[in-house]
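Exam revision sheet. Question 4 asks you to relate a sequence to its structure. Input first:
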Amino acid sequence: MRNSRRTKSFYALILIMLVFLSVAIMSSACADTATLSQDLKVIEQEAFCGDTALEAVVLPYGIESIGERAFADSSLTEITLPRSLIDIADNAFENHDPNLIIKGEPGTLAQTYALEHGIQFESTGDLVYDLQGNTVKLRMWSAENPYAENASEDTNAYWLPRYEAVKEAYNCDFEFYTSPSEWDDMPNEWIQSVTRGTPAWHVTDNLSAMWVMELSAKGVLADISAALEEMDMPQAFKDASLTGGARYGFITSFPSPEGLVFNRAMIKEAGMEYDPGEMFAMGEWSYGSFLSYMIELQSKLPEGTYAFFIDPNYWGIFAPPANGGAMAVYPDFSLGLTGNRYIEAFEVLKRLYSAGCVRPTNTDEDGTPDYWGTPADTFDRGVEVAMTHRAGWQMSGLTSRGLDWGFVPYPWGSGATLNEAGNYKSLENYYGAYYDAAYIGSVLKGIEVDFPGMDAEYVTKALVNLMYDLLYSDDQKAYIKSEANPNYVPGPEGMFIDQLSGKLHAWLKLHAKYNPIVMINSAGLGRSYGGSMSLYSLARMPFLNGSDIRTTFETAAPEIEASFRDAGYIQ
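Answer key, structure tokens:
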């Protein structure tokens, strides 16, 4: 049996040499060491299985996977694994020598694999970042704490090896921060902690975009731009948190933009030939086509049923970006609400109101319009409204209500161009929008106080990289990198009940821009009319009191701009 295993291993090695031409075998008096070709990408299954002569292997950078039982039942006692590895079969070293050592860079798959499989690990070089044994205070919102007493077995199995690998790689310990404050009070707690010189936490895996402006305006967040330069991912992921020239976190997937949803059954029963999704897919969803469609739909619906309902505030967030990327306020705090494309979008909505296509808003006991509750009381129940706006989390519940529903992006105006008739994918200057995101790697200012003698920028870079290494394996990082490919297409989310809705939503993801309006509003900025009007209220004003759209927005603009200037965001 021993000789047959050696013969099998020998022929596997010869095969690799023939395919890649340059496998070098180096021998010494005490061991056989194989250093494989730089061209090699895969160690095939059972390639060295049963080799009782081979004692050491050096895998060069570029190898991406090690197959099933590749080194099983061998006498291997030392193997060097490169950072490029993204997959190692669980049984790759089955029945390994008890003295086997895996060598590699700290924080890579080599170290994680060794810890998970009880194999000794030895670092091949210096730490990428050395935090000198200090304790990192983690604010973990999404990832679980494997050190907690109530941590489940699954949590321990998945997270503990990762935490331990990163601790060793960065030469640090961990402390887990839990806020004593209610959700809305958390930013104030952190502001006070930084002001006192005792930051509540050092780095987090989830910081709401809605808090960024308030925290950055108070000088609480560190700019992590330098750290992001070291990360291989789409630039859009690094720029997601760009605020006033600084970056305060990153994302690792394309954000989910919001759009319109429609009741397919209601529209078909009304006798419309196509549903809104089909209209968009055919390139027939320009403002002119959209208005004609909605007016025709309204004429065919039963009395008391409306073609549309929308909060003008939501229209102002999501409709203008589809018209050449227009926004009330751009991420650099320049104003767009007085621009022709932004106003054009609002004029379309006003025409819908004038045509009787928009259902009146419900009111509460005080007579205040209930923009939030109206679609829940109508569209979500399958009554009175054929199309409205819904966020992703709201869309996911429509199927369970038994609705036959679909998704369609917002219509476009003169700011966007359809280059090929009938092909929505040929649209230029068309954008979806999102206003919230969970930023990863956000760091509080002043954290160097907990890292004596260390430079603030060095510690910040270390913490951002630490969080990335903690949350994502090498194969996950490889996928994140692949999202920068111009031909990358995200898969449809599982909440849709028809293929076209999923395709339209996936396409919209690749054309989404961040709209800072919610962040601005949360920070108390952008107010007008003597401070009485938020940007939300301003969008609703022409539809509540009948005021002229352009006059309403132009009157508000100087005061809005002054609020940004006073806060230091513009000169």
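Marking note for examiners. Residues 1-31 have pLDDT under 50 and may be disordered.
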